[in-house]
Every structure is written in structure tokens, then in C-alpha cells.
Design goal:
By secondary structure, the chain is mainly β. It is built from 3 helices and 13 strands. The longest helix is centred in the first third of the chain and has 19 residues, at 13-31. It starts with 12 loop residues before the first helix and ends with a strand.
């Protein structure tokens, strides 16, 4: 079912301004050809407020989690989230934030393994979202963009699952999983599930994209890495 996001209260104004400002700064850095290492030389931790690209491991590290202002033609009808084979598009940037109704995570704070976060899409101001609706190709769980002005509901919350039990923080270039809080499923993709003319039509807006979905167990289809982006530090 399609949710109606709540109207932002005055108390959420600062929450909304902070990631929006970070996003604008991040986009200006990337437009100027600045890399993560040009911005932050200290450490390898992925931090709150950073604008990053999620690379999918199983598909060879060549596809990036992406969203644009287009609606799904089936399922929930919410904003499309897919994976694209183009690393230079700003539509594959996501700002890492605190989860719904959780204390603000100050920009530059390292993200802990096991921490609940939201991933907000600066181009469209939607959040990475999932719910109990089937995805169109794999018939797994649908992943979409949801909310208004980066505010949505608990369906936008994800847990960072690090692969090594010895890791305390999410680190750049290390594979990890994102587990959806509400449904306990994992963000996933597969090179087997690609949008083509035969399954999406001739005017398909996501031609040659991979389907983003959630699956029940953590495996190589659910592995992502964060390398590209603007990484903030304190």
C-alpha cells in the first residue's frame, strides 16, 4: 500500500536543513572533479552527512544504487530505485543520516556496525525505502524512493551489517549489507535481473538498469561497498 508521509513538524526543520546543505556542498565538490581523498585524508570510516555512492559487488562493482524522478509502473507506484552502470551521475548520490525518530548523527561521525541509518536522495529528496510489495522482475521485496523533503517513516530505516564481527565501524571499500528494519530483509540486486525492452518496453526510463530489491538472507547478492563520494570528517 502507498503511504502518506507526515507533514514535517517545526522540530524536524534542523534535521532537514542539515542533510540538504551537505548535499549541495557534495554536489559542488563532485562537479569540480574532487574525489573523496581530496576532501578527507583522515581514516577510512564512512561518516554521517557524507554523500556517497553504493557500489554493488556481485555485478562486478560496475553498478551504482540510483534513483530519479520516475514512478514505478507496477507495485506501489512509488519512485523508482535501480542500479545504473554510470558512476558519474549525481542521481546515484545518497546522504547518510540518522534513522527515523533517532537523535541526530552529527556530520563527520563514524557510522557504527549495527547502527540504524537512513539514506536520503538529494536530487529528489526521497529516502531509500522498502515494504511488503513484490518487485517487478525478481518477485522479491520492492525497493523504492519515499517521503517528502527527506522525511518519511520507519520503512526508510536500515541497519548497517558489517561482514566481519571484529569491525566496529563501517569502512570505505569494505563489503557490507543493509538490512531493512521493518521487514528484516536485505538490500540486493543481481545481474540476472536487468530491465530490457522485452520486460520494460521500448520507452523504458530505466533501460539496462538492474532491479533493486530486498531478499531474505545476506549473501553475495546483498553485498555493497562505499568508495566514491564526499566523505566528511570532524
Amino acid at each position: 500500500p502507498t503511504h502518506t508521509p507526515p507533514s514535517p513538524s517545526p522540530n524536524t526543520t534542523d534535521n532537514m536543513k542539515r542533510p540538504a546543505l551537505v548535499s549541495l556542498l557534495s554536489l559542488s565538490f563532485l562537479a569540480g572533479g574532487v574525489s573523496a581523498s581530496d576532501v578527507d585524508h583522515d581514516g577510512k570510516a564512512v561518516t554521517c552527512g557524507s554523500a556517497v555512492k553504493l557500489t554493488h559487488v556481485e555485478s562486478g562493482g560496475k553498478y551504482y544504487l540510483n534513483s530519479e524522478s520516475a514512478k514505478m509502473g507496477s507495485g506501489s507506484g512509488q519512485q523508482i530505485v535501480s542500479l545504473i552502470p554510470k558512476k558519474g551521475k549525481t542521481s546515484s548520490l545518497w546522504v547518510l543520516r540518522e534513522a527515523d525518530d533517532v537523535e541526530i548523527c552529527p556530520p563527520g561521525t563514524p557510522i557504527r556496525c549495527g547502527q540504524k541509518i537512513r539514506l536520503s536522495h538529494p536530487d529528489t529528496e526521497k529516502n531509500l525505502h522498502s515494504h511488503l510489495v513484490r518487485s517487478p522482475l525478481s518477485r522479491q521485496q520492492e525497493v523504492s524512493g519515499f517521503g517528502e523533503a527527506m522525511e518519511g517513516d520507519t520503512g526508510d530505516d536500515w541497519v548497517v551489517v558489517c561482514k566481519s564481527s571484529s569491525d566496529k565501524f563501517l569502512e570505505r571499500a569494505k563489503a557490507f549489507h543493509l538490512q531493512h528494519v521493518d521487514t528484516k530483509r536485505y538490500l540486493a540486486a543481481s545481474s540476472e535481473y536487468k530491465f530490457t525492452q522485452s520486460n520494460c518496453g521500448g520507452g523504458c526510463p530505466i533501460m539496462n538498469h538492474l532491479e533493486a530489491h530486498c531478499r531474505s538472507k545476506a549473501d553475495h547478492f546483498t553485498e555493497f561497498k562505499i568508495e566514491l563520494g564526499v566523505h566528511l570528517s570532524k
